[in-house]
Amino acid sequence: MTGRQDLDQPLTQAVAPALTRTTCPYCGVGCGVLAGADGTIKGDPEHPANFGRLCSKGAALGQTIDLEGRLLTPRIKGQDATWDETLDLMADKFSTAIRDHGPDSVAFYVSGQLLTEDYYVANKLMKGFIGSANIDTNSRLCMASSVAGHKRAFGSDTVPGSYQDLEEADLVVLVGSNLAWCHPVLHQRIAAAKAARPGLKVVNIDPRKTATTALADLHLRIVPDGDVALFNGLLAHLADTGQLDDDYLAKHITGRRPAVTQARLGDPLDSGLTQPELAQFYQLWAGTQKVVTVYSQGVNQSRCGTDKVNAILNCHLATGRIGKPGCGPFSVTGQPNAMGGREVGGLSNMLANHLDIENPDHRARVQSFWQSPTICAQPGLKAVDLFQACASGKIKALWVISTNPAVSLPDADGVVAAIAKVPFVAVSDIMARTDTGDLADVLLPATGWGEKDGTVTNSERRISRQRAFLPAPGASRPDWQIICDLASHMGWGKAFDYTGPAEIFAEYVALGSATADFGRDLDLSIFADVDYANLLPTQWPQNDKRFFADGGFYHADGKARMVAVRAPVRRQGSDLTLNTGRNRDQWHTMTRSGKAPRLGAHLAEPYVEIHPGDASDLALQAGDLVHLKTGYGQAVLRALITDRGTRGQLFAPMHWTRQNSTGGCINALVPSITDPISGQPASKLTAVSAQKFTAAWYGFAASVSPLRPGGVYGAIARSLTGWQGEFAGQETPPSWQGLAQDLLNMADCEVTEVSDPHQRQTRLAFYRGETLAGLFFARPEPVSLARAFAISLIGSETPPLQALAGRSGSDQPDPGASVCACMNVGVNTLRAAIAAGATTVQALGEATCAGTSCGSCKPELTSLIAQHSVAMAAE
Ligand SMILES: Nc1nc2c(c(=O)[nH]1)N[C@H]1C(S)=C(S)[C@@H](COP(=O)(O)OP(=O)(O)OC[C@H]3O[C@@H](n4cnc5c(=O)[nH]c(N)nc54)[C@H](O)[C@@H]3O)O[C@H]1N2
Ligand SMILES: Nc1nc2c(c(=O)[nH]1)N[C@H]1C(S)=C(S)[C@@H](COP(=O)(O)OP(=O)(O)OC[C@H]3O[C@@H](n4cnc5c(=O)[nH]c(N)nc54)[C@H](O)[C@@H]3O)O[C@H]1N2
Ligand code: SF4
Ligand SMILES: [Mo]
């Protein structure tokens, strides 16, 4: 494992090898981790989210804590600066803007990856001291529709479920969720429960076949945005067949009649499903008491995201299937502290502790608790509007903390232009170079995971500690401290004079007590006087508490609302649409997961999934490049021809940036269309045009050192021996050596060039002394080469001709693209083992070790076995 001691960095110091109990910084499952400064990472057997399990990303955390690429000092206009001069400048820019243009002329754009304490002080500074609500968060792109749906139905943003419900359920419905890749440990928990109790049924509702589909008894391939039609149809079916819970409805719910009437007006066939599929699903749902409906971005990230949420909630409310063991709707959070951010008021339309900006009593009480000079009077700008206000010149000073909007917001190129228009931009990040940081006037170095202390709340409302086990590198400071330092430089030092996160957490809990008489769901009294240093993972309001089994909703009448929702008009036309999402082994804009060599090997370049029929229409072969275009922008991606999607539906991951690709940033294509209620972007459905991208040459490179993402197409990634890159260009270069030296940054190396006129391939090997430092292969067609083998040679003393032969000898079988990241097992090794008779996941594990560590690749192992049996049957 790569720990910090491996690096020749004066800024590190040896830390005792003892393990620290902390929490994974990636997804909202919130797994407990035991971590050591030497890079040791283990699942915490005592954490109730994971009981010792970790997924491939969590297990590779040790490979991401090195200091390569870190931002280690404040910078002003690219020059290193001291904290004092940087904070003085920032305070001056913010204060001047507020004085000259009012508090709404400044904005913070923050993140569900901040710790609760960071989030709390950012919110306090903006809402209570600057006096604007222009603080929004990337959770707007993630959870906003769920928040809005919960508030409409329950009167509060309450997630009533617990993970245990998923294991106790008789039916788990996964809607718009690729749980196997995005919440892998929850997926493993459901898979284990299902294996132990095959009566547990799983339904997967997704227009696409995904790794999650393998777990499902029934896959409902709805049309994009077909969810409202489907769940309205379910509600109508439940009503028509007398399966509503009249007693629960009478006592606890309003809005039954209009919701059911509206549902009956819809046509469930608008979901794109067939009558038998609908009947099968409706019968299963109606006939099962213990149903948990899990939903994620296929629901939230839509122009009708809030309506989708309420269509789902309606069915649970109307049948009383909520708040009981094994029962309920369950919106799973994406980021490690998406839930904590919602608690402390990270969204521009919420106040701290689940209080409402619009409520004057709530505002007054929070202001008096904070003893603040002011309090925002109305909701602030939501993310997309906020960046539009940047573009139109309304925002004079912007602070982006722990998020990368130049990549992750829709209309990403427009966002770059908008940020460039803001007179003063500060970015707090852990990395020196990000697409957003590259636009900043001021860069503020934050301490990262493992170096900072605080709390996060996971999807089941469980608050866990993140604890430091590494020293803060360079001049970096924790986010809460940077925020408090700015407040102090702006003249509000007294209200932000905390000794540490424990004191901030205590204030957050105390605000809860001071506002307890408003009777909100967020009751933190269990945390009063808690031993912060030793805080155990604990759910609010208390462990295993279930909301809503006996009503007790948060509308003024104590009842929940069923909301009448109408399905959107079904899309017509034969154009291609683009769906976007995630890969198993990468995290968002890859600033951290991209560092781990064993994660880079899973899917190493930006690609688009395309149906074989569409590929044939576009004359695309495997390995070709595709040029996608919309009115907003364009991208060039590798075609991955697969029937995972249906005809006309493309899918591309969101991870690639301008740092590691040319033309791979997918949000350049996505329009800034949002849900009218939540303001959440519709990231999953964009009409696009596609064309084969004809390149004059295609190249592949492997290197010991970072590559440059050059060419009209270029994508670089970490490899097990350094770096790898895929390239293409539209003009044959005058000299291959010149081009390769530039892409590999290897002008100082000795080079051997071999041209193979038969294969029309040019091959170059770069040496430093006897050591093979780089390889480059180019040809007029996509390079077909055993990449894993070429990569394995880098850093060795393999002589040129052998290295340039480009394929493995018979004694060294090429493992193929990596499937199991933990044990580094490639697809060819797996296919060979399956052919030799290892036709169960367990047997494959015994034969190759694949799937025996974190288990995240098990769905892919299942699918490889299935492919083999289909191929055998066809023979
Ligand atoms: N590996 C990995 N895991 C992650 C993350 C990561 O970056 N990488 N990020 C984390 C974060 S912040 C989040 S928010 C979560 C997201 O977790 P998920 O929501 O599970 O992930 P996505 O891939 O964004 O989208 C889920 C699915 O929605 C489907 N979908 C698209 N349109 C529709 C539709 O109209 N209806 C339905 N029913 N489905 C549709 C897509 O085909 C896709 O398979 O993952 C978290 N976990
Ligand atoms: N097309 C499309 N777009 C999407 C989505 C999609 O499905 N499709 N999903 C959306 C969703 S759900 C989400 S959540 C967003 C995520 O999008 P982003 O939030 O933009 O992505 P990240 O790469 O997680 O950005 C986090 C940044 O914070 C930095 N960082 C890490 N740790 C720290 C720290 O401790 N302090 C500070 N100050 N910085 C730190 C990282 O280096 C990185 O630059 O993307 C959204 N965009
Ligand atoms: S499932 Fe994986 S990424 Fe999510 S918290 Fe657990 S270990 Fe981290
Ligand atoms: Mo997210």
Keywords:
single chain, 875 residues, alpha/beta, N-terminal domain of TfIIb, Dimethylsulfoxide Reductase, domain 2, seven-stranded mixed sheet, globular, binds ligand MGD, binds iron/sulfur cluster, binds molybdenum atom
Characterization of this structure:
This protein is α/β, with parallel strands linked by helices and 875 residues long. The chain has 6 domains: 14-64, ADC-like domains (N-terminal domain of TfIIb); 75-139 and 339-539, Rossmann fold; 143-331, Dimethylsulfoxide Reductase, domain 2, CATH 3.40.228.10; 576-693, Barwin-like endoglucanases (Beta Barrel); 697-803, no CATH class; 818-874, Arc Repressor Mutant, subunit A (Orthogonal Bundle), CATH 1.10.10.1100. Helices cover 31% and strands 19% of the residues. The protein has a 7-stranded mixed β-sheet, with helices on both faces. The protein has a 7-stranded antiparallel β-sheet with strand order 26-29-30-28-33-32-31, sandwiched between helices. Strands 22-24-23-27-21-25 form a 6-stranded mixed β-sheet. The radius of gyration is 27 Å and the shape is globular. The two termini are 44 Å apart. Bound molecules: ligand MGD (2 copies), iron/sulfur cluster and molybdenum atom.
